[in-house]
Amino acid sequence: MLVTFSCPAYADITMFGDVAVRLLKLMGHGGTVPGALLAEDVPAALARLQAAIEAEKQLPEPQAPEAEDDEPAVSLPHRALPLIELLKAAAKAECNVMWDSGN
Fold this sequence. Notes:
Largest sheet: 4 strands, antiparallel
Radius of gyration: 14 Å
């Protein structure tokens, strides 16, 4: 499953469903897809997500088994960057944020 986040103030962001649900939960949302945040709730969700990501950065990197192609795993803080930027733009423009699955 893919989840696409959208708001009028920023380009759509699409990410894998498991990562999107984890980030939604870090924002204080239940993780349901589809869903939305009202404009007045965006700053609080952004603050919760940023705090959770900062806490995640403090944890030691888990030793993932080597993939067949030897590419490094992408960390959650790195995967969260586009969503954080979208939330910042939504907070600045005072607009709602919506997300839906690509199915």
